Amino acid sequence: MTPIIQSTTNQNEIKTLESLIDGATEVHLAVENRDIEAIYTFEASRLLEKDRDGETPLHYAAINNDLEICKILINRNPDIIHITDVEDKTAYDWVREYNDEYNSHINTCDLLKKLN
Questions:
Q1: Tell me, which fold does domain 3-115 have in CATH?
Q2: Below-50 pLDDT ranges, the chain
């Protein structure tokens, strides 16, 4: 199953920290579960935390095509936009690939392109 399809079919599934990739933090988990209230409780510096693959919570939100969470993360800590993962890709780089390959993530791609 491709990541985009998997993301869509599992949208209502509540994730646990153990179900995420190694190194994912409570912030990544809040993003995955769309727990907006929890996202606001974290210090802004925690939004820059990376998982084992170097992905920030913004990478997760962008890949999930969650425009609202992307905006929240960026508003709380604008530095998050330029953080790269272990493949040297920003969240924008990932959504641009999804957009090119699947013609999806259009609004998220537009937002991140504007800010990049």
A1: 1.25.40
A2: 1-9
